[in-house]
Design a protein that fits this description.
2 domains, 3-stranded antiparallel β-sheet, 6 helices, globular
């Protein structure tokens, strides 16, 4: 018996009479048409593959727009991410910054150097341990974060306007759940 999968004609394995598992194609017996359901794990994999494409494209879209906004301030996306994190915290140690950014302490120090030269952050030493370098955001850094966040809110409002109220609610619930999962890791 011959099977057509996608665009490729293949011979069925010996002993296979009428059913075969074809992961992501509709299998066609050359005599009759038969559709095979995916197993739940196959469906999850297919959905994850589709979501990986969507997530990458959404990140590219948002990051490209964000980078255009950051260019006038000479701040990169990783530097902006650090500024947003510092804006929520009072003071962070260099090691905490390195951990949050997923960098070595030396790489985090380079990131902070650039932001300090632009006047967006300030370094100091801890009173109780002079070996600890403390970093805080300056009013200029907070103003940049507020301005760009406001632009982001405006852009997200444009996206939300393309959704029904129920879709908006569902999107927020799903993203909140994903956010909580990511924060727990």
């Amino acid at each position: 018996m011959k099977w057509l999968t996608g665009c490729q004609l293949i011979d069925s394995p010996p002993g296979l009479t009428g059913f075969a598992r074809v992961s992501s194609f509709i299998a066609l017996n050359t005599e009759t048409v038969t559709a095979f359901a995916r197993s739940p794990s196959d469906q999850i994999r297919a959905d994850a593959e589709r979501l990986s494409h969507i997530v990458l494209e959404m990140q590219r879209c948002f990051v490209l727009h964000l980078c255009k906004e950051l260019a006038p301030g000479n701040v990169s996306f990783p530097q902006f991410f650090l500024l947003t994190y510092l804006d929520r915290k009072e003071v962070l140690t260099m090691s905490a910054i390195a951990q949050k950014m997923g960098h070595t302490t030396a790489a985090a120090s380079g990131l902070v150097d650039r932001l300090e030269n632009l006047g967006y952050v300030m370094r100091s030493v801890a009173r109780d341990d002079r070996r600890k370098v403390m970093v805080c955001i300056t009013p200029k850094g907070s103003a940049l974060v507020r301005r760009i966040r406001e632009e982001m809110v405006g852009n997200l409002m444009k996206v939300l306007n393309h959704l029904t109220p129920d879709e908006q609610k569902a999107w927020l619930q799903i993203y909140s759940k994903i956010y909580d999962y990511c924060q727990s890791k």
